[in-house]
Design goal:
Strand order of the largest sheet: 1-2
Radius of gyration: 17 Å
Order of helices and strands: EHHHHHEHHHH
Number of helices: 9
Number of strands: 2
Number of domains: 1
Largest sheet: 2 strands, antiparallel
Strand content: under 5%
Distance between the termini: 45 Å
Length: 207
Amino acid sequence: MINENKRIMVSKEKINEFISRAYKTACGHGFHDEERSDEHWMMLVISEIGEMVEADRKNRRADVGAFKALEEIRIGSDAEYAEYVNKCFVEHIKDTLEDELADVVIRICDFLGTRHIEPLVLEEASTSDDWANIWGKDSINEQCYGLARIIIRIDKDTSADDISRLLGASLAWCFDFADFHKIDLEWHIEHKMAYNESRPNKHGKGY
């Protein structure tokens, strides 16, 4: 029985939807044109965690209200409107703490899609009070170190069952972190995925 004092994390169905969409987009943008190691993909997850820290260091936070207000202004053709929304996204959402957190989830989901592994996701997640007791006065930098410690345990010798467990725990961490910091993570994931779908091959990067 679910404790009434607990909140329910994002559904298993939604996670599977994110996995499918992230993997499909990555394939369509050249990220899987060649086989890569588990260590390769986990390092990219860690790099996104580092970008969360950099966003926090620069005090970069998403202005969702400003973005939503601009998004409601319908202009031009569908293509022109899509370009306009992307510009608004870049100005008010991209490269913020919230956006980088969404990137962590997307990277994890893409990897799970690549390896055809379903994460062990706990639907009963910790409350903000639970995390306040766990983290205490930890900075966001220190909190992110906890997530990196989970990710770094995955390598070529890690079994599929352990990957499922560890990445399930990582996804739970992301949504608990979002709840603790009052971030609508599902919204940020949806909008970052939409933005990613419009980007060039490999997002203009080498890999």
